[in-house]
Amino acid sequence: MDLQAFILCGQGTALSPFTQTRGDTGLPKALLPVANRHMIEYVLDWCEQASFREIAVVAEPEELEQIQKALKPYMEIRKRQHELLAKHGPTVSGVTQRQPVPLRFVEARYDTTGAILQRELLPCIKGDFVLLPCDFVTEIPPQIFIDQFRNKDPDNLAMAVLYRNTFEIIDKKPLDISYTVYSENDDSVKQPVLLDSYSKDDVDKSKYLQIRSHLLWRYPNASVSKKLLNASIYFCSKELVELLAPVGPFSAISETESDNDEDTAARSQKQQAIHPIQFRAKNELIKDPINCNKSLSKLFRDLARRSWQHSTPRETVGLFILPSLGSFIRSNILNAYMEANRYMLRVKSLLFAAHSTPTMNNAVGADSIVGANCTILERTSVKLSVLGKNCQIGKRCRIVGSVILDNVEIEDECVLENVIVGSTSKVGKKCRLTNSYIEGSYTVNAKTVLKGETLTHIYLEESDQSSESAGSSEEEDSSDYSEADYDEEFEDDGLFER
């Protein structure tokens, strides 16, 4: 099955202050290092195993150039590996080595992932496709996902992937817990389907979880779980292109830009050339007015509601819950980002159990990674930690379970436990930091003792000029936003009867 893969690189607001959401000290989310490798490289390796027809990296124009530049060494290494394998001819099983999967970059000019899918990606889709985040690490091979999607029911438009948190160290409070309503279909031959989902904030505001009557009539044995986490992985049928297509012709450029007639005609022809799958019992797709100006999770939630909201049955969204035997983790919050680094360090220590790098009186454990051109002075201990390149660590320091980014200077007699230190930061002498985060280019004064703190710079968002007018406009904007946000959250969340 030839699939197109689209890797969506978000802004990483929950990973602040280490992403570019705060000033210029952060990195694009896709380029945050996990065990001294860019986060997105693990997703690209996973896609390489799947042998997708095409891989597209989707990001904002400002970040896309940085991502493309940072991935050049990765693409060169991948190209050389395929060239070396090709020289040896067919493999032992007689299978000829495939060429590297084409990798291209797509600019995203819209704020929400749903709008990006509708306006930017649909014109590029030629068949079945998969939407992926840029922040997951897993040992589960992609073939398991693909086989599950290949054997989907004819009525399924897409397959949403959910997983359970298998890392007990991650605090469950900051996780994006939601109430997932689904049908297990134990008494039938059909696969589980996603029916609805409610965010924890919606349930807390209404004080109870109310399931719509239409859902219970159609699926009386529905189940509700708050232990399932959204993997943000969606395997989609090409029918979804027809369903989500905008009313007018496709437009992959912003509304302020113009397009020539030839491109418009070609896109319209491409839109007409996409037909529903042929093995459906009734080869007909009923279009509903679906608002795509929202996140992908809410978009597929609305698609899942189509199966029970209408008198005429609509297509369903399949559900695939990852087996708990395999590890899966998304680095979408800081605690999970820390645990993703530790997970890769444990994998490294198991693969290279006999490998250790003690030099002089240093004690760098086999479960740690030290970048190039690092200086570590005597009587310093580094355990279960990652050090970026060009770091300078002083004497008699103790670093445990921490992530130190590039060009960081840590002076003598410092103790760091479960700490993330941003690039080009400096930690003064005799500091003791525990469970803390330090933004890039920040200087921690000597003899500082912190626990559970986040050290960031102070940014002035508004200039002193016309402060009164700015303040009044902020009040108006905030009131408009809260009202719009209220409508977005509660207009179609299923909590209130109409």
TrEMBL record:
The answer to whether keyword Chloroplast applies is no
Q: Which family does it belong to?
A: Belongs to the eIF-2B gamma/epsilon subunits family.
The keyword Protein biosynthesis belongs to this UniProt entry's keyword annotation: yes
List all Acidic residues biased stretches: 473-498
Q: Which coarse location class describes where this protein primarily resides?
A: cytoplasm
Q: Where is this region: Disordered?
A: 461-498
Q: Where in the cell is it found?
A: Cytoplasm, Cytosol
Q: What are the transmembrane regions?
A: none
Q: What protein does this entry describe?
A: Translation initiation factor eIF2B subunit gamma
UniProt-recorded Gene Ontology molecular function terms = guanyl-nucleotide exchange factor activity; translation initiation factor activity
- Where are the annotated coiled coils located? none
Q: What does UniProt give as GO cellular component? A: cytosol; eukaryotic translation initiation factor 2B complex
The Nucleotidyl transferase domain is annotated at 10-162
Q: Gene3D superfamilies given for it?
A: Hexapeptide repeat proteins, Spore Coat Polysaccharide Biosynthesis Protein SpsA, Chain A
